[in-house]
Specification:
flat, single chain, Arc Repressor Mutant, subunit A, 2 domains, nine-stranded mixed sheet, 40% helix
């Protein structure tokens, strides 16, 4: 019967595109990965990859097996994480990592109730971009991440939506677009865009690159300052921009398509290694629908 190692070799080969890339990802010899897949084909009595070209291509049988293999590996990972957590006690310190674009006040109000129930637990607060927080959770720290929703979330993370934050396009009052406005999105391509990306240069799935001229930052308050100084237009959470709008140094971008902004969903993430602990369940309960 096929093994978890065989399924890992199969799925990783599909994801990485080759046997050699799968071997590097799994930190195994290529011959080991190839043999796992050969054994899986024997167990399944079917050829899973067409090997005549430079890179292996899934056969029809491979395509049918793939979603089942992915689901089984995901469940195996959850079982492993649950088993590791069986004897865990409440950690002495937990971390809450928050995207800078999410209002901190509503989070800290909820956390105050957590301290009443778990007075001996120390809290650490970190701020980072949403993508950087996802990377931090890979290390299995006792950490809760609060991020803007991403299209791709690793399977070892549990997550749920806790609300949304309104974004709009903003520019400095001195910016050329402030006087002439913008008829449509094509007009934005003519001016520099200020954009969020992670420290390893990943861009968010909802922060689209529109202009060919882009400056990057890893938090919204840097974008705010750059936009105030007139260096470009950017998409900002309304609560980040509101004070400068009231001062008159920043304005919503005048545009014929009035609603260029949108609501960004906010997700709470926890590693499966810790998500079943009572303190993390309580934190999830307190943070639900705070936004």
């Amino acid at each position: 019967m096929f093994s978890v190692e065989q399924l890992q070799a199969f799925v990783t080969t599909v994801e990485t595109g080759s046997f050699s890339a799968a071997a590097r990802h799994l930190n195994k010899a290529q011959s080991v990965v190839s043999q796992h897949i050969i054994n899986l084909e024997i167990d399944c009595n079917a050829v899973l990859f067409e090997r005549s070209g430079r890179y292996p291509q899934l056969t029809d049988a491979g395509k049918r097996l793939l979603p089942q293999a992915v689901a089984l590996l995901s469940q195996h990972q959850r079982l492993t994480n649950s088993a590791l957590a069986l004897n865990d006690e409440t950690p002495r310190e937990i971390t809450i990592a928050l995207d800078e674009g999410i209002p901190l006040k509503v989070i800290t109000n909820a956390v105050a109730k957590l301290k009443n129930k778990y007075p001996n637990v120390s809290l650490e607060f970190l701020s980072a971009s949403s993508l950087d927080i996802i990377d931090m959770l890979e290390d299995e720290k006792p950490l809760t991440g609060i991020i803007f929703s991403e299209l791709s979330i690793p399977s070892y993370l549990d997550y749920e939506c806790i609300g949304s934050v309104k974004f709009d396009l903003y520019i400095a009052k001195s910016h050329p677009l402030a006087g002439q406005g913008c008829k449509n999105i094509d007009g934005l391509r003519l001016h520099r865009q200020l954009l969020i990306r992670s420290r390893n240069t990943q861009t968010s799935s909802f922060q689209l690159k529109i202009s060919p001229d882009v400056w990057y930052a890893d938090n919204y308050f840097v974008l705010l300052e750059l936009s105030i100084q007139g260096y470009g237009w950017c998409l900002l959470p309304n609560h980040v921009a509101v004070e400068e709008v009231q001062k008159g140094t920043l304005i919503k971008l005048p545009i014929e398509f009035e609603e260029m902004g949108w609501l960004a969903n906010v997700d709470m993430l926890q590693h499966q290694r810790h998500s079943n602990l009572d303190v993390f369940k309580e934190l999830r309960n307190l943070l639900r629908h705070v936004l």
